[in-house]
Sequence to fold (1198 residues):
Amino acid sequence: MKISIKNHKSIEGNLNDNLMDLFKNNQLSLEAPCGGKGLCGKCKVRIIKGQANNITHEEKNILSSDEINNGVRLACLTHPVSDIDVEILNWKETNGNILSYGYMPEFNYNPPLKSVIVKKGDLDFSNNLSIEEVINNKLNIKSSISLEVMKNLSNVVCDSDEIEVVLHNDDIIYVGSKSLNNSIYGICVDIGTTTVVASLVNVYTGEEINSLSSINPQKNYGLDVLTRIDYCNKDGGLKTLQSLIIDCINNLISDLCVENGIDKDRIFEVVISANSTMNHVFLGVDPKTLGKAPYSTVFRHGRIENNKDFNLNINSLGKIYIIPSVSSYIGADIVSGIVVTSLNKRNDKVLFIDIGTNGEIVLSYKGGLLCCSCAAGPALEGMNISCGMRGETGAIEKVKIDNNGVKIEVIGDEVTPSGVCGSGIMDIVGELRRNGLINNKGRFKTKDDLTKEGLENLNHIIIEEPSRGIILHNNQCKSIVFTQKDLRQVQLSKGAILSGFYGLLNYIEMPMESLEQVIIAGQFGSHLTKESLINIGLIPDVLKDKITYVGNSSKAGAIMALLSKDIRFEMDRIIKDIEYVELSTLDGYDKLFTKCLKF
Amino acid sequence: MKISIKNHKSIEGNLNDNLMDLFKNNQLSLEAPCGGKGLCGKCKVRIIKGQANNITHEEKNILSSDEINNGVRLACLTHPVSDIDVEILNWKETNGNILSYGYMPEFNYNPPLKSVIVKKGDLDFSNNLSIEEVINNKLNIKSSISLEVMKNLSNVVCDSDEIEVVLHNDDIIYVGSKSLNNSIYGICVDIGTTTVVASLVNVYTGEEINSLSSINPQKNYGLDVLTRIDYCNKDGGLKTLQSLIIDCINNLISDLCVENGIDKDRIFEVVISANSTMNHVFLGVDPKTLGKAPYSTVFRHGRIENNKDFNLNINSLGKIYIIPSVSSYIGADIVSGIVVTSLNKRNDKVLFIDIGTNGEIVLSYKGGLLCCSCAAGPALEGMNISCGMRGETGAIEKVKIDNNGVKIEVIGDEVTPSGVCGSGIMDIVGELRRNGLINNKGRFKTKDDLTKEGLENLNHIIIEEPSRGIILHNNQCKSIVFTQKDLRQVQLSKGAILSGFYGLLNYIEMPMESLEQVIIAGQFGSHLTKESLINIGLIPDVLKDKITYVGNSSKAGAIMALLSKDIRFEMDRIIKDIEYVELSTLDGYDKLFTKCLKF
Fold:
């Protein structure tokens, strides 16, 4: 099967191949900040001639009706079923220094990393100057060269006519003979409590080459940050968790290098965006004070560390930049989210919610920033739920309930479901509520109640023993049941986040109606439809049309920080300017929380 | 035997015990910057009652006639021969912050190292500040706390009510629970090509507690710096030499700690004063460019390194300060010498000579500084001499020749001599010259010549086969002979240094007579009497009364740098302001050198 690409050579594929994969296999590197999940809308193509699979639900959400009418598709969701002529629409965007990533504002491109070639013949060694001084003079900087770099300096100067100098914030971090590939790369890592995402970025072009993700292997030592903090207090616990995350990042970097043919020694910086606990553990700094008096982080500011202390799979002389964080529970991931959504520079009233194991909320009003953190717990992500599982093959990801009963969609074709993932759980609760199967206190109604309300045709999906619940699917061996206890977990999460939402608004006496936008951040959040957010009651009805999605803004912020000193400077400003509201100390918070628990 | 000390308890000793040793054994720590060699004049005592050995030649040089008449002695050269009453005259000098060391000018005491105690109750954790910020705020500084310090921070803050913070140039380098001993210490190291000296200094009182020395174990890999540089080019050579010097320094530090009951973890800084090659090798930086194009050092400026990269026997979080150097052959040891003798601040005309394996000369005139380096070779120190040896038991250290022949003094009582040390060699050449046994070209006269000149009674000490020479001592098994070849080595050294001397004066057209002082620096130089310097022709006759000694100014400069930020700043200024003269490029230098070879 032939794929003819406008203004480009043709490539070959097989029936039902994914178009994005075909491009990648042929070194046509398209933007895919969302990792090819149909979320970012970056990989637009126009089908000029030929047939492909039907347009998907996700594409309908992202593409305008004009685009759809003109045959525009997302490459990552398109499978040609015949010879096909396509045009890559974002083709030209890779020119210039800065790409406008999916969910990334324009910003000043001035990366701390820079590679410069110096000719030995141009160096002036007079006046007893040291090699260090001579190179500094040539570059018109005043860098104190680190011990590790100095160790190689005399060899390079004796052996090379052209010397490559890599600078980081005007510090000379590497000196070597000019290499054939003079591109330099960075890795941007979002360390979530549950998921770790790493991106390979060409620092010179600003291009995000590829992005890979992995489960955070620390998960086996606790689903939430408090459990992890506790584990750090065990003998060797901190060391164990640190090794796990470093190994995990190293595996992702190795895969990125292999898949994209990049030499790891050309990677000179890793940017880390993480919540405060993950930040502390990554650095090997005991996070105990995050969870007990004095309830402080050990550090908050942006830090530059040396890779030699971490042995990440990049150049041994590389740097690691840790994005600054606000407090124990408002981490660097949220600071990233703030720059990605320009919350710190906007004049409208915007609420930013990162839904994850912890829910963090930032309210931007007239340039002021207010934030809080809600201990949502992992229920919304499908953890701590009896039938919960990750969003992988076999997971129920969509649930619909109508008069006839439960309809499910399962990840993977014709697979027997084995559990429910986060988006499925959100669906269940939304549908339970919509169909009146639970009361507003979050209790399952009995079969008797349903009968009284004329819903007896739904009695067959309700169970009352050993506890109340709803049957999602009956296997031969076992049933998948969502129980009263599971519902309680979700309810607590929803109550925590919604009360944070109202808490912030109340704090500055802002009426909800004056909000102009509600931004849903986070990889997980981007899987939640507006409907399920409204149905479950996480977002009040009146805001439905103001909801937008920003995807993994933690990773996007890390990319911005990699590529811009200005962004790093802004991030340092944000942590000084933002006001943190400790919900539990607010007057009447307990009452508010109880109210927010109601469906 | 009883030693009664004025204003102190009495101590016990045996007949002929050394008074200084008795003081040390009784924890009476006196100043002894010269290591108890009678050079610094710091350990003055007054004998009130009782008898001791006769006053020595060295004491007569150092003490005024008034002092001698009043019974003043140097403890290090005094051996009581009866019960004795003494007064320690420098007893009071250990008060206050700065001691006036033997050869050390007054300087501003403001050490980079500082220990501060912070009470946890005084810390203000409000506003989500991190522990790092809270401690910085309390100390009114802005230190970015290093990763290693952070790792311990939460434990210390949780567990301690009183927290010790150690600062280095306003950087927080250590945080711990307040310790019982809150003194902090530094180690000052002079790395010579031949000898390594380490001093233990109490940073809080400024007191030099003790000083120990050792042969530089790199000696087995070459006597001079060029041979060592060559060795670094061998596979693993640099690593070998670096390990040797680090082990050597560690042994000295261990001994200093044990002898003085100091916990190594209370030592927070090591200051290194060394020539440029030793500096590079200590840091593990290849010194190849010192010896070949571009004939540059890799670094010159003062450097602060982390002990974790060196594993010296001090606190693992401690710092290492490398004193700046001028060029490949004017090292940090000379920069030390310049501050110790205040050459950079004087208005008179002074010549400073450090006689060692390399001879470095600095000329100070009206505040200007000019310097050069002469490849003297190790002959003056007794190396590369057929009968040469170190100044240890069995070495001929003094030689006198008169009409009757050769008279020698040997180190150690009634020991059979086994060789000649540096000062003995200087004596030999001086005496050969004074007695007319050699001509002005440096050739031994024949027995015939001596007979013609009426010196036939010296014929018995002259040999002509296998080569010409002089017999210093006849053992049963072997004779100790100083040969024509040995003489040639000394002559080349003398020529190198003297031509540097004249070269600098000629460079600014300064007549020798206008010199107001000639300072002899270096541990070795302090063993050379004015007479031998004049006799051998190293210093012209007319300057005899202008000669002074400054001892080990490399070590003294390191102590000053440990105790004063101002001195470090001055040192950085010196390397910018000093002018280096490359002798070999001077007009007529070859002619000058040939002239200076003559006796």
Q: What stands out?
A: Residues 186-322 of chain B form a domain with the Nucleotidyltransferase; domain 5 fold (CATH 3.30.420.480).
